[in-house]
């Protein structure tokens, strides 16, 4: 399987579930977005994975295990670039808005606050609107990436919290706007998963153990834990589900 995804997050679904389907994943050069791109590719989709880093894209294109994923450079802050890029796609069945950044502490600066909102929230709207006609033609699906910080606070990242809370409202609004044409819009809300963004926490035993202890499952999430939920929300199994955000946090947000 493409990308070494071999666990239950993929084998729970029938092989070839997304054969003949085209999936676009933003923010897919690492972490959550890359895991999701691998998951759809493993289920037969033609996956276009975008990111802004030329060096990361070059490395991913050279990885033989990822040869079934098409990696493209796209700045999600540039609406004209998004429109031009989406226009090159002949069809589009699924859009996953996974692009995201956090700038701890610095987000109290006006410029940084606006940058984080732009990447995490406004870009999802840009991509959805650019892809709307193609998704309507396919009666497709959008899956946005929210966060457990859509529900709880982190004093160091006010813009991240605000942007991810905004994803909840955007998901509901787009579900009702796109729904009459048969397009479903949902979101996942990751918790503490081992990514580069959370490295400063999970590499320190005391903080890693404290976070695991609060979760119901007493462990950190891995990025692969997010694949099954995303695939489900884009699949026929969720044909009557729209406008919802599915927490994938091991019970962290509901813990004490």
Description of the structure:
The chain has one domain: Rossmann fold, CATH 3.40.50. The chain is built from nine helices and seven strands, in the order H-E-H-E-H-E-H-E-H-E-H-E-H-H-H-E. The protein has helices spanning 8-11, 31-42, 54-61, 79-87, 110-138, 158-178, 199-202, 205-214, 227-234; strands at 22-26, 46-51, 69-73, 94-97, 141-145, 184-190, 245-248. It has a seven-stranded parallel β-sheet with strand order 3-2-1-4-5-6-7, sandwiched between helices. Strand 2 (46-51), helix 3 (54-61) and strand 3 form a beta-alpha-beta unit. The longest helix has 29 residues, at 110-138.
Task: Tell me the domain tally.
Answer: 1
Distance between the termini: 39 Å
Second-tier CATH architecture: 3-Layer(aba) Sandwich
User: What percent of the residues sit in helical stretches (DSSP H or I)?
Assistant: 40-55%
Low-pLDDT runs: none
Which sequence of SSEs, written as H and E, runs from N to C? HEHEHEHEHEHEHHHE
Q: Please state the structural category.
A: alpha/beta
Question: Radius of gyration over alpha carbons?
Answer: 17 Å
Q: How are the SSEs ordered, and which strands pair?
A:
Layout: H1 8-11, E1 22-26, H2 31-42, E2 46-51, H3 54-61, E3 69-73, H4 79-87, E4 94-97, H5 110-138, E5 141-145, H6 158-178, E6 184-190, H7 199-202, H8 205-214, H9 227-234, E7 245-248
Parallel strand pairs: 1-2, 1-4, 2-3, 4-5, 5-6, 6-7
Helix pairs in contact: 2-9, 4-5, 5-6
Essential attributes:
7 strands; alpha/beta; 14% strand; globular; Rossmann fold; 256 residues; 7-stranded parallel sheet
